User: Which sequence fits this backbone?
């Protein structure tokens, strides 16, 4: 109100206003008052005089320059076009033409579009005023061209004072509880309250009693709701059934009764939580005192839990084919709720029971099961003077055994059998030279053969080296963890392939397969070609150093399925390089081993296997 008064005084009234709010709060009335203030002969003024010719005509509804349009019945584009034709003419006897469109949200989309240009550049002699109860249905393009004013519900005290003043002016005496019921039924709407007052005055005459209001409006006595709520809180199921029968005798609607009961419990929660519940509740002082007393005798947990149970049960009862049965079942559960023991109390009781028992009474738990083993000692193999390698022919004692190495075990597993660790060099040589497998009798894990296992000389023993090596990361986690780094690796070599892989939804490893998931089959159209699959497989082998087969998966489609043999070419190339006669000869001459084989484009310009110049000369001599 202050904003509109200042706008009238300063001459800053916008040419389009929209008033929103619940029904019966005075939106259309406020629009008429603004029309009076704009066309008043004493103004434009903050308040119309209501005495000049223009004000009297608007009050009587006889003003030619004020046109009210019902948006619900005149909602088409043709009506809006006719309205635009009329506003082209200057006002007849007033200062401005005022167009009031009620329920503007009912206009069609075409009608709104026809108003856009006029609202954006309105004539100087025209003002538009809109009223709506559903502001969210008005297009944003219309809202952006209007000044919005939202009218709130009237408070309980304001409505009660207004209705009491009207009753006094009509010479009608009303009981306070009856007036409170009418105000509560109005729900903040002045128009709804006036309709109820008119109906009650016609029935009761010069004296309005509470019983008459309950009978006319079909309401539930507030005291009946309070008594039923107290019975539920006290667990008195007999009183609950008696009050429920009384409610049915009055012919009360189930939905109305449910809303009243839930509102009563909400008031209890507000009284329990808020320090000033009167600011949040619209009840009389006597009712507020009774609610505060009831809320003080129960805990917040009890009130909130019972409120939630009733909210769920009463909602189901309103849609049930047997509403009374559903209502009775809900009340029975609400009464039984007091017998439910909270989980926290049960846990506390168990803790007390366990604390009262002696250690001798507790069951004996093996030490290995009570706590995980934190340390494990790995014993190195005993010293011996076995030959070092069958390829070199050299013999000599092994280096001194190192001290036991402590290794942390993350899981409580039973201690493994102590056995001599297999040297890594022998494993790699066995993979590189499949045509010369080591005899079964020479394996280091053989407990029968007395000869020590054959190993390659190292600066430290194999058990110590394996103990010092960090625990391997799981392969599945490793693929996902380094996927971003792999994309950068691919980006340096094939940018388009890296961009295509970035469209993948997820990646996972299953056995020896790297499965790349896509949401759209178009993202893997280029990747599934055989040549590109081979290139991608090379990148995977070079980066992850593992023989993985590439597979593309699209949900519900086989468009990206590829031949499994498409990703085997790099593996065959690596195997061929490992079995190359020249490589095998170099291994025998230098008693060496194959570290890794890189066949990607980045490494093809240089040798895949690092060999120094002296080794190359010796290799050439050996070939001659």
Assistant:
């Amino acid at each position: 109100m202050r904003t509109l008064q200042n706008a009238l005084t300063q001459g800053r009234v916008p040419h389009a206003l929209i008033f929103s709010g619940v029904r019966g709060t005075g939106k259309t009335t406020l629009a008429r008052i603004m029309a009076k203030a704009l066309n008043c002969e004493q103004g434009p003024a903050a308040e119309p005089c209501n005495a000049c010719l223009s004000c009297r005509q608007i009050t009587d509804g006889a003003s030619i320059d004020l046109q009210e349009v019902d948006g619900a019945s005149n909602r088409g584009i043709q009506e809006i076009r006719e309205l635009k034709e009329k506003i082209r003419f200057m006002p007849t006897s007033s200062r401005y033409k005022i167009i009031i469109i009620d329920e503007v949200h009912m206009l069609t989309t075409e009608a709104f579009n026809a108003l856009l240009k006029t609202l954006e550049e309105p004539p100087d002699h025209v003002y538009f005023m809109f009223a709506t109860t559903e502001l969210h249905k008005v297009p944003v393009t219309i809202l952006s061209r209007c000044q919005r004013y939202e009218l709130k519900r009237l408070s309980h005290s304001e409505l009660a004072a207004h209705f009491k003043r009207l009753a006094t002016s009509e010479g009608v005496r009303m009981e306070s509880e009856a007036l409170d019921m009418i105000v509560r039924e109005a729900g903040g709407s002045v128009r709804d309250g006036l309709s109820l007052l008119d109906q009650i005055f016609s029935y009761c005459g010069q004296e309005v009693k509470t019983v008459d209001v309950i009978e006319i409006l079909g309401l539930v006595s507030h005291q009946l709701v309070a008594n039923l709520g107290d019975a539920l809180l006290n667990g008195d199921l007999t009183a609950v059934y008696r009050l429920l029968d009384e409610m049915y005798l009055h012919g009360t609607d189930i939905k109305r009764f449910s809303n009243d009961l839930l509102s009563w419990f909400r008031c209890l929660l507000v009284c329990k939580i808020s320090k000033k519940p009167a600011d949040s509740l619209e009840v009389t002082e006597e009712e507020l005192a009774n609610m505060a007393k009831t809320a003080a005798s129960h805990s917040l947990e009890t009130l909130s839990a019972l409120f939630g149970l009733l909210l769920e049960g009463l909602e189901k009862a309103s849609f049930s084919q047997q509403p009374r049965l559903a209502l009775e079942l809900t009340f029975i559960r609400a009464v039984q709720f007091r017998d439910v023991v909270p989980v926290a109390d049960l846990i506390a009781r168990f803790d007390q029971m366990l604390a009262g028992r002696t250690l001798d009474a507790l069951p004996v738990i093996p030490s290995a099961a009570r706590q995980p083993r934190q340390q494990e000692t790995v014993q190195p193999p005993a010293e011996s003077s076995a030959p070092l390698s069958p390829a070199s022919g050299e013999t000599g004692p092994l280096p001194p055994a190192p001290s036991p190495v402590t290794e942390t075990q993350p899981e409580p597993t039973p201690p493994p059998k102590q056995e001599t660790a297999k040297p890594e060099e022998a494993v790699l040589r066995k993979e590189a030279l499949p045509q010369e497998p080591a005899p079964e009798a020479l394996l280091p894990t053989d407990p029968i053969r007395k000869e020590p296992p054959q190993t390659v000389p190292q600066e430290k023993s194999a058990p110590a080296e394996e103990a010092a090596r960090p625990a391997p990361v799981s392969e599945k986690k490793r693929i996902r963890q380094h996927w971003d780094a792999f994309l950068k690796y691919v980006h340096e070599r094939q940018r388009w392939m890296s961009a295509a892989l970035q469209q993948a939804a997820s990646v996972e490893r299953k056995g020896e397969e790297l499965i790349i998931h896509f949401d759209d089959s178009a993202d893997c159209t280029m990747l599934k070609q055989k040549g590109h699959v081979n290139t991608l497989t090379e990148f995977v082998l070079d980066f992850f150093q593992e023989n993985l087969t590439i597979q593309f998966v699209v949900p519900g489609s086989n468009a990206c399925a590829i031949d499994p043999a498409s990703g085997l070419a790099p593996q065959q190339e690596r195997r061929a390089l490992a079995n190359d006669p020249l490589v095998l000869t170099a291994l025998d001459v230098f008693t060496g081993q194959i570290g890794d084989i890189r066949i990607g484009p980045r490494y093809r310009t240089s040798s895949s296997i690092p060999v120094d110049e002296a080794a190359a000369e010796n290799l050439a001599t050996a070939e001659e």
Q: What stands out?
A: Residues 358-477, 602-624 have pLDDT under 50 and may be disordered. The longest strand covers residues 126-132.
